[in-house]
Amino acid sequence: EVQLVESWGGLVQAGGSLRLSCAASGFTFDAYAIGWFRQAPGKEREGVSCISNSGATTYYADSVKGRFTISRDNAKNTVYLQMNSLKPEDTAVYYCRMGDNWGQGTQVTVSS
């Protein structure tokens, strides 16, 4: 069974940082790209960042480019999202995704 478990969301002041983790199991981790998405209240879910299976290729939404960094540790079956210079508009539930599989999400709240 594929499982994706996000961790380390929280409450932070504007300008602060958080590092999210997505721990994966139930599939050959280093064979798949992984993506981070977010959904703010009243808004559609949007793509934030993704990383190729090897980690060599990454993508960022314009809204987070230069502030967020995605990485992965294939030995630990984990993908990370380092979020710096956080803004109130980054407040959302953050999800990781592999194919059609989603985690349960972790709440990130940025106060002004």
Describe this structure in words.
The chain is built from no helices and eleven strands. The chain has strands spanning 3-7, 10-13, 18-25, 34-39, 46-51, 58-60, 68-73, 78-83, 92-98, 101-102, 106-111. It is globular.
Q: Return the string of H and E elements.
A: EEEEEEEEEEE
Straight-line N-to-C gap: 40 Å
Principal-axes shape call: globular
What is the structural class? mainly beta
What's the mean pLDDT score? 97
- Percentage beta strand: over 45%
Low-confidence parts lasting 5 or more residues at pLDDT below 50?
Answer: none
The biggest beta sheet is recorded as: 7 strands, mixed
What's the β-strand tally?
11
Counted by DSSP, the helix tally is 0
Fraction of residues in helices? under 10%
Rounded radius of gyration (Å) = 13 Å
List the helices and strands and how they pair.
Layout lengths: L2 E5 L2 E4 L4 E8 L8 E6 L6 E6 L6 E3 L7 E6 L4 E6 L8 E7 L2 E2 L3 E6 L1
Parallel strand pairs: 2-11
Antiparallel strand pairs: 1-3, 3-8, 4-5, 4-9, 5-6, 7-8, 9-10, 9-11
What's the gist of this structure?
With 112 residues, this protein is mostly beta strands. It contains no helices and eleven strands. The strands form two sheets. Strands 2, 4, 5, 6, 9, 10 and 11 form a seven-stranded mixed sheet that branches. Strands 1-3-8-7 form a four-stranded antiparallel sheet, with no helix packed on it.
